[in-house]
Specification:
With 368 residues, the protein is mainly beta. The chain is built from 2 helices and 33 strands.
Length: 368
C-alpha cells in the first residue's frame, strides 16, 4: 500500500499529475492534495481522499463527468471527495464516508447522469456532512446500507433536488443528534428504500421533509428509545410504507403523515402487553386465506365488503335426513309414496305401481 498524490490539476491518465510519475494502482491510497483531478478512465484504487497526510495537503477533489467506473473507498477531508457530473453513467463500488469538516461530502451527483453503486455509506462527524448527496435531476441506484453520522444533518444519503434515489438495503438513524438521519428526501425528487428504515438512538431512519416522494418497505421503531423508522413532515408530501414494526419496548415505527402502500402485502409487527410479538397482516396477501364467493352463502358480504357470496344453501327441510346443510343436517324423509307421487306428477299416464307385482312390470308401468 502506498500514498500517491496529485502534484497539479489535471486528468487521471496523465502520469505527470502524480508524484511517482506513474498511474495509481489498486494497492494505492490516492490524495487530491488540494488539486482537482478529472477521472477520464475506469479506475480501481484502495481509496480516494481529500484528507491530509504527511507531506500531503487536504482539499481538492476528484470529478467524473463521463461514464467511467470507479472502485474505491471515499474519504472527504476539508472538501468534497468525488463529484459525478454531466449525463454519463458511472458504476461505483466502495464505502463512502462523510467528513470531519462541515459541508464536505463523500460523493455527489450534480448532473443528470446516473450512479449505479454497491457499498455502504455513513454520514460524517461534522455538520452537513452527507456521505452521498444528489443535488440535481440525476439518478442514484444503490445496493448497500446507509447510516447517519454524529453531526447535525450528517445524513447517510440525501436527495435535495428533483432526482431519484433507489436503495436496496437498510437505512438507520445514528449518533446522538436527532437530525443525523440515515436517508433524507428534502427536495421534489423521489426516494425508494427497498429495505428497512430503522430509528436510531436519536435520529429517524428515513425522513421526507418536502413535497417529494418517499417509499419504504418497512419502518422499524428504535428498540430502546421512542425514535421512529420513518417520518413524513408535510401533509402534501407523499410518504408511504408497506410494513411497520414497533420496537421491542413499543416504540412507534412512524411519525408525521404516513400512508400504507397500495396493494395487499401490508404487515404490522406489534408488541403485546406481555412483550411478545404479534404479526398483523392483510388477509388478502395470503393465497387461499379467503374463500371464493362460490363457497360463501349467497348474499353474504366479506373481505370488508369487497366480495359477496354466491353459494345457494338449501333449507334442512329440502335436504335428505342426516345430510349436512348449513350449520345443521337435513330433515327431508323420502318415502316410497313420495317417489310414486313425484313420478305420477311427472308422468300423468303412470298407473298405481303398488298393484304391479314384478320389478319389470313396475318399470313398464311407469314408462310413459
Amino acid at each position: 500500500m502506498a500514498n500517491l498524490f496529485a502534484t497539479k490539476t489535471g486528468v487521471w491518465n496523465d502520469t505527470t499529475v502524480w508524484n511517482t510519475g506513474t498511474l495509481p494502482t489498486s494497492s494505492d491510497d490516492v490524495y487530491a492534495n488540494a488539486f482537482t483531478v478529472t477521472i477520464n478512465q475506469n479506475i480501481t484504487v484502495l481509496s480516494l481522499r481529500t484528507t491530509s497526510a504527511s507531506g500531503i495537503n487536504a482539499g481538492g477533489g476528484f470529478t467524473n463527468s463521463g461514464s467511467f467506473n470507479v472502485t474505491a473507498n471515499l474519504y472527504p477531508g476539508t472538501t468534497q471527495c468525488m463529484n459525478h457530473s454531466g449525463t454519463g453513467t458511472m458504476a461505483f463500488v466502495g464505502s463512502v464516508y462523510g467528513s470531519v469538516t462541515a459541508s464536505a461530502y463523500g460523493l455527489s451527483n450534480t448532473g443528470t447522469g446516473t450512479i449505479n453503486a454497491t457499498g455502504d455509506a455513513t454520514g460524517g462527524t461534522a455538520n452537513n456532512t452527507e456521505a452521498v448527496r444528489n443535488v440535481s435531476s440525476g439518478i442514484i441506484n444503490w445496493t448497500g446500507n446507509f447510516a447517519g453520522g454524529s453531526g447535525a444533518a450528517a445524513f447517510g444519503i440525501s436527495n435535495v433536488a428533483a432526482g431519484t434515489i433507489t436503495i436496496t438495503g437498510n437505512v438507520t438513524g445514528s449518533g446522538t443528534i436527532s437530525t443525523a438521519v440515515g436517508a433524507s428526501n428534502a427536495g421534489l425528487g423521489t426516494m425508494v428504500i427497498n429495505g428497512s428504515a430503522i430509528g436510531g438512538s436519536s435520529a429517524i431512519g428515513a425522513s421526507n421533509t418536502s413535497t417529494g416522494s418517499l417509499t419504504v418497505t418497512r419502518a422499524v421503531g428504535n428498540s430502546a428509545n421512542v425514535v421512529a423508522g420513518v417520518n413524513g413532515t408535510l401533509t402534501n408530501g407523499t410518504t408511504v410504507v408497506e410494513e411497520i414494526e414497533f420496537g421491542a419496548t413499543g416504540a412507534t415505527p412512524v411519525t408525521g403523515y404516513i400512508k400504507f402502500k397500495n396493494g395487499t402485502a401490508n404487515k404490522c409487527l406489534a408488541i403485546r402487553q406481555d412483550t411478545s410479538q404479534v404479526t398483523l397482516i392483510n388477509a388478502n396477501s395470503i393465497a387461499g386465506e379467503l374463500p371464493v364467493p362460490a363457497n360463501v352463502r349467497a348474499g353474504t358480504t366479506y373481505n370488508s365488503g369487497a366480495k359477496t357470496g354466491t353459494l345457494a344453501v338449501p333449507i334442512p327441510a329440502n335436504v335428505r335426513v342426516g345430510v349436512a346443510t348449513d350449520n345443521t343436517v337435513g330433515t327431508a324423509a323420502l318415502t316410497a309414496s313420495d317417489i310414486v307421487a313425484a313420478n305420477q306428477t311427472a308422468f300423468p299416464r303412470m298407473v298405481n305401481v303398488a298393484t304391479v307385482q314384478s320389478t319389470g312390470d313396475q318399470i313398464a308401468a311407469i314408462t310413459p
